[in-house]
Amino acid sequence: MNVTIKGLSVSDPSTLTLILENTYHNAAVVAGNGYGSTAPLNKVTFTLDDQAQAPIPDPLTSGTWQPANTLWPFIGDSPYGPWTLYANCNTGCSGKISGWSIQVATEEPTG
User: Fold this and answer.
1) CA trace torsion 87, 69, 59, 97 (10° rounding)
2) Residue 78 phi, psi dihedral angles, 5° rounding
3) What percent of the chain has pLDDT over 70?
4) Domain count, the chain
5) Backbone phi and psi for residue 18, each to the nearest 5 degrees, phi listed first
6) Is residue 45 part of a domain?
7) Is residue 70 a part of any domain in this protein?
8) pLDDT attached to residue 109
9) Looking at the domain assignment, is residue 108 inside a domain?
């Protein structure tokens, strides 16, 4: 499973947390929990993948990174139904995400 965040702009990324939740209310913090950098981000696009080679950099840049927490809470759940991406700022930062998507690989049952 991969999560792509498109065009993230935020005034203070040090206060930003991104949380992904599926239809079963399983959730994971996928980015954030406070980056050290307070420099604003402008239209950063990145993919979160458990199999990526490196963790999310600080400051955040475009690329493919390991999520802040593994995406394992979603393994075994049906990919169908509504998914929600929450963007929270601890101190009232302002920002925008121009889009986001998930890519889920499923396996056919054997037997």
Assistant:
1) -30
2) -65, 135
3) 92
4) 1
5) -110, 125
6) yes
7) yes
8) 64
9) no
Write out the two tokens for 5.
Answer: 């965040």
In this prediction, residue 34 carries a pLDDT of 61
Helix (H, G, I), strand (E, B) or coil at 20: strand
Which residue range is the domain that position 8 belongs to? 2-103
* Residue 48, pLDDT score: 96
Does the pTM exceed 0.70? yes
Spatial contact of 41 and 10, defined as CB atoms under 8 Å apart:
yes
In the block, which residue shows the tokens 């950098």? 37
- Mean of the pLDDT values across residues 3-21? 94
Structure tokens at 27: 């959730």
The reply to whether 36 falls in a domain is: yes
Q: Model confidence over 74-110: pLDDT tens digits? A: 988 888 999 999 999 887 788 999 999 999 877 766 6
Which residues contact residue 96 at a Cβ distance below 8 angstroms, ignoring those fewer than 6 apart? 7, 8, 9, 10
DSSP state string for 44-94? EEEEEETT-SSBPPSS--SEEEB-SS-SGGGTTS-S-S--EEEEEETT---
